[in-house]
Write a structure and sequence with these properties.
By secondary structure, the chain is α+β, with helices and mostly antiparallel strands. The protein contains 25 helices and 20 strands. It has five domains: 2-62 and 118-203, 2-Layer Sandwich (Alpha-Beta Plaits), CATH 3.30.70; 66-114, no CATH class; 210-329, no CATH class; 347-530, Orthogonal Bundle (Hypothetical protein af1432), CATH 1.10.3210; 564-687, Orthogonal Bundle (Isoleucyl-tRNA Synthetase, Domain 1), CATH 1.10.730. Strand 9 and strand 10 form a beta hairpin.
Length: 690
């Protein structure tokens, strides 16, 4: 068995691209090896600042030999046909062909063995193709060659069992040499295999495995912080990015100048993270501390003192801008910034951001009462929720929108609930983000998202396939989570229509209901995806949504949970089978007779005591289900349906539906239709799978 080692060495690869590039390289090479019949025991790829590395272990020395068969003419066929077969198969005489008995007689077969190519020869083609196909998000090309790559290439290393595989790409031909750290060990050296490669690079101040680099950064920062009774603020995204910036990570701690500590912690954190890639350190009580973590890509004789001093100097300049923005922005109230929102377009067909906040304010006032918030405060928070977009701070640090609005609101004596609602109205930003719980924050967050959904659906800018440029799926999921996690009893259709009405002239009264239904259908799809992650069957959600009048998500979930319990029971499962049988019979007979079998049933027309017993049972169930649904006692409604199992089973066992007597046949088909109608009061059982 053989080991392949491949390294593509280049200028610095953007950190955000390294992990996917390594995965793509492993996929392309791995798939091609399987296609070529070269199975491996293991195949791993690593991404780093200046190199992509792939190692495949357990490769065979050559491809397996393959046998090819060609069927020829029947034995005794004309000589011309036989000679044509021999030429096509590459045979010189019939002695080289086999004769096989087939259903239609004896036939000639040519069996040839194709020798497998040496692995090194196959690898050259596979790797060159994989490098050409590697899908970089952005790439460069050079005037003197057609090759595209993310950054200028320097060298390629490719060895199979220590022997060079002469891969050619980008004007380079592979060898067996690489080089270490750009500054600490730039000399070129040869390697034999992956173990040798990894060990020698480590002595040359390069850690090949990003997991090892990440662990060193995280563990060392924790230890350095602990010495000062501090902890490192969790930031997996920053950790991943810094891991891709340093081949030999050396974590260090720096100090923030006391002159900047009055600036909000979120501003300092954003400035350090976004521009400098620094880690925030906090006290054991969770307060922002005047220390930061920085990861150098160097070891120095002074233990990093000069590096720390340089980073502190750069940070002072960066934070000076932030402090200036903070001091200047506080001089103006949020309300005074509203006119500037007229200069900011929300969407070309939907008007300005100022028009949006006016709509949000009206919608927040509408939503306040059912959610239990103060309507006047809700309108105030909604009016100011986007005002910080015109501040200098948010212009420099867009990730602080909402957060800075809260600070500026408090600085000018807005009520604390209003300020909190301004900060939280963007939440939740994703599946891992928490939902607002304070009534005022809930109202403004819902109003903002519902306004966007209503507007974009009204102008037919709906998500399609994988495209969702206005993040409407995220907005819908945010609304769903807010409602469910806060157990809000909010009729969505009415809320949608009110939101659409905020866009004056965009939709006529007749169109509002249509657009609202489209948004509700969209919510149904989002809810299915949300509940699927929690183990809830999507078909049960469809069965409840299919009723057409269910837009209260809390009530819907209660109904779905009761339905799940029902179909999981023996009675429910068996009744579901009977429901399908009844529905299929009625559908077939409706189509055959070109009539609809529904309507009143006279007991005397049924002609069988089992049919009369089922009719009586259905009446009892209907009398129980209707008030149970009105009281939202869905468990009781499902229990009532379960009582139908025995009379339905008996009916199908004892009674012929398509009776010879026409009157009895009509009555019995109507009885089956009545079963459907009774069960469909609870959910559309035709939507349930399995």
């Amino acid at each position: 068995m053989s080991e392949l080692l491949l390294e593509i060495f280049s200028e610095e690869i953007p950190a955000r691209m390294q992990k996917q590039a390594a995965a793509d390289l492993a996929r392309l090479v791995g798939d091609a090896l399987k296609t070529a019949g070269l199975e491996t025991k293991s195949l791993t790829a690593f991404g780093g600042p200046r190199r992509l590395t792939l190692v495949a272990d357990g490769l065979p020395k050559a491809q397996p030999d393959t046998a090819e068969e060609r069927k020829g003419p029947q034995v005794g066929a004309p000589e011309q046909a036989v000679q044509g077969f021999l030429r096509a198969a590459g045979l010189t005489s019939l002695d080289q062909a086999e004769q096989r008995e087939m259903p239609k007689g004896m036939f000639y077969f040519a069996v040839t063995t194709k020798k497998g190519r040496p692995t090194a020869e196959v690898l050259k083609d596979i790797i060159e193709t994989a490098l050409a196909q590697l899908p970089w998000p952005k790439s460069m090309r050079w005037a003197d060659k057609p090759t595209r790559w993310v950054r200028p290439l320097h060298s390629i290393l490719c060895v199979l069992d220590g022997k060079v595989v002469p891969v050619s790409f980008g004007g380079l031909t592979a060898g067996n040499a690489t080089r270490g750290h750009r500054f600490l060990a730039p000399a070129v050296f040869a390697v034999k295999n992956f173990a040798d490669y990894k060990a020698r690079l480590k002595t040359a101040y390069v850690l090949v495995d990003p997991a090892e680099r990440s662990a060193i950064i995280a563990d060392t920062l924790v230890k350095l912080a602990a010495k000062e009774s501090l902890t490192v603020q969790d930031d997996l995204g920053l950790l991943a990015e810094v891991t891709g910036l340093a081949e030999w990570p050396v974590p260090l701690l720096g100090t923030i100048d006391a002159a900047f500590m009055h600036v909000p912690a979120e501003v300092l954190t954003s400035a350090m993270r976004k521009h400098q890639k620094y880690f925030t350190l906090i006290t054991k009580q969770g307060a922002f501390s005047p220390r930061f973590g920085v990861v150098a890509n160097m070891e120095t004789a002074d233990k990093g003192k000069a590096i720390i001093a340089g980073n502190e100097r750069v940070l002072r300049a960066r934070l000076s801008d932030a402090r200036f923005f903070w001091d200047q922005d506080k001089k103006r109230t949020l309300e005074s910034r509203l006119p500037k929102l007229e200069e900011r377009v929300f969407q070309a067909k939907l008007g300005t951001m100022r028009a949006k906040v006016d709509r949000i304010a009206a919608l927040a006032g509408y939503l306040a009462s059912p959610i239990g918030a103060d309507a006047e405060q809700a309108r105030r928070a909604a009016l100011l929720c986007k005002a910080d977009l015109s501040s200098d701070m948010v212009g420099e640090f867009p990730d602080l929108q909402g957060v800075m609005g809260r600070y500026y609101a408090l600085a000018h004596n807005e009520q604390e609930d209003v300020a909190d609602a301004i900060a939280e109205h963007y939440s939740p930003l994703g599946p891992n983000d928490s939902c607002p719980t304070a009534p005022l924050s809930v109202v403004v967050s819902l109003a903002d998202k519902l306004d966007s959904l209503a507007g974009f659906f009204a102008i037919n800018e709906k998500p399609t396939g994988s495209k969702d440029p206005y993040a409407l799926r995220r907005a819908a999921l945010g609304v769903i989570r807010i409602i469910l996690e806060n157990k809000l009893r909010l009729p969505l259709l009415a809320a949608f229509e009110f939101a659409i009405g905020g866009y004056n002239g965009l939709a006529q009264d007749s169109a509002r209901e249509k657009v609202s239904r489209e948004i509700l259908d969209f919510f149904a799809d989002r809810l299915k995806a949300h509940l699927r992650d929690k183990g809830v069957r999507h078909d049960l959600v469809s069965a409840v949504f299919a009723l057409g009048d269910e837009d209260d998500l809390v009530r819907l979930i209660a109904r779905v949970e009761a339905l799940a319990g029902f179909v999981a029971s023996d009675d429910g499962a068996n009744l579901l089978v009977a429901y399908r049988r009844a529905a299929n019979i009625v559908r077939i007979e409706d189509k055959k007779d070109n009539v609809t079998y529904s309507g009143d049933i006279a007991d005397g027309d049924l002609g069988a005591p089992e049919a009369s017993a089922l009719l009586s049972a259905i009446g009892t169930v209907e009398a129980t289900v209707t008030p149970a649904l009105a009281k939202e006692d869905f468990t009781a409604a499902m229990g009532a349906l379960a009582s139908l199992r025995q009379p339905v089973d008996t009916f199908f066992d004892k009674v012929k539906v398509n009776a010879d007597d026409p009157t009895q046949r009509v009555a019995r088909l109507r009885l089956l239709s009545r079963i459907e109608a009774a069960m469909n009061k609870v959910a559309d059982f035709s939507k349930i799978e399995g």
